[in-house]
């Protein structure tokens, strides 16, 4: 099997010391109000940011590899994603976390049509294309066409399911384990996993 090597991500703009738009100024004011009201402290905010900065698709790969090698864990992951990832030391509170499984008959893809909701504290920063208006609108209307642009060619008998993230709910795709990986260790399997495969914009993997 061959994977899709092209990286659709774009470089993020550097952080700015001061807000540069009206929306950014509103966001800064809201942050200050929430801290002043005691909803969280600056120290807690820094801890969350640090956790997000340390997160990456490697964490998702570890979860997928465990599910591929441990059927009981896979069952728990699909039944209650938040509880299952907690077993491996990951936490997504206060969000709900749902994992959708790809198989021979189904392909799942994740989007956030309203903004860019994404499990950042687990998988790291979302790619720039995930936030784009084009992806957010088109993948709902014409998912097969969008997926084809990522190199995911699906036969007509495969059901494509689009899952729309919300402010309360985050999704992750559990990719289908590639053939000819029997006997591989969890570390070897985890190394196959990419960010795009966890979103659903990649289906095949290179195993040679």
Helices, by number, come to 11
Low-pLDDT sequence parts: 1-20
**What is the number of independent domains?**
2
| CATH fold-level assignment of the largest domain | Nitrile Hydratase, Chain A
Q: H/E element string?
A: HHHHHEEHHHHEEHH
What integer is the average pLDDT? 84
Strand order of the largest sheet: 1-4
CA(first)-CA(last) distance: 9 Å
| Biggest pleated sheet | 2 strands, parallel
Shape: globular
Structural class label: alpha/beta
Fold and architecture overview:
The chain has 208 residues and is α/β, with parallel strands linked by helices. It has helices spanning 22-36, 42-54, 57-69, 71-79, 81-86, 120-123, 128-131, 133-141, 143-149, 186-190, 195-199, and strands spanning 96-101, 106-111, 159-164, 169-174. The strands form 2 sheets. The protein has a two-stranded parallel sheet with strand order 1-4.
SSE topology:
Blueprint (H helix, E strand, L loop, with lengths): L21 H15 L5 H13 L2 H13 L1 H9 L1 H6 L9 E6 L4 E6 L8 H4 L4 H4 L1 H9 L1 H7 L9 E6 L4 E6 L11 H5 L4 H5 L9
Parallel strand pairs: 1-4, 2-3
Helix pairs in contact: 3-4, 8-9
Give the key terms.
two-stranded parallel sheet, 208 residues, alpha/beta, 11 helices, Nitrile Hydratase, Chain A, 2 domains, globular
Provide a short characterization of the protein structure:
The protein is α/β, with parallel strands linked by helices and 208 residues long. It has helices at 22-36, 42-54, 57-69, 71-79, 81-86, 120-123, 128-131, 133-141, 143-149, 186-190, 195-199, and strands spanning 96-101, 106-111, 159-164, 169-174.
């Amino acid at each position: 099997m061959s994977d899709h090597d092209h990286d659709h991500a774009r470089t993020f703009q550097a952080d700015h010391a001061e807000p540069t738009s009206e929306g950014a100024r509103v966001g800064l004011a809201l942050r200050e109000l929430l801290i002043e009201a005691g909803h969280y402290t600056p120290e807690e905010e820094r801890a969350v940011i640090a956790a997000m900065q340390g997160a990456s698709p490697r964490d998702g790969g570890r979860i997928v590899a465990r599910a591929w090698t441990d059927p009981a864990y896979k069952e728990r992951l699909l039944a209650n994603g938040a509880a299952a990832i907690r077993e491996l030391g990951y936490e997504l509170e206060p969000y709900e976390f749902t994992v959708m499984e790809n198989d021979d008959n189904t392909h799942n893809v994740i989007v956030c049509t309203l903004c860019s909701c994404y499990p950042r504290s687990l998988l790291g920063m979302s790619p720039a294309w995930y936030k784009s208006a084009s992806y957010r609108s088109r993948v709902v209307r014409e998912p097969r066409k969008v997926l084809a642009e990522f190199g995911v060619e699906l036969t007509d008998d495969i059901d494509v399911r689009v899952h729309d993230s919300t402010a309360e709910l985050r999704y992750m795709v559990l990719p289908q384990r590639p053939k000819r990986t029997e006997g591989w260790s969890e570390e070897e399997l985890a190394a196959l996993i990419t960010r795009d495969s966890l979103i659903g914009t990649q289906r095949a993997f290179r195993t040679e």
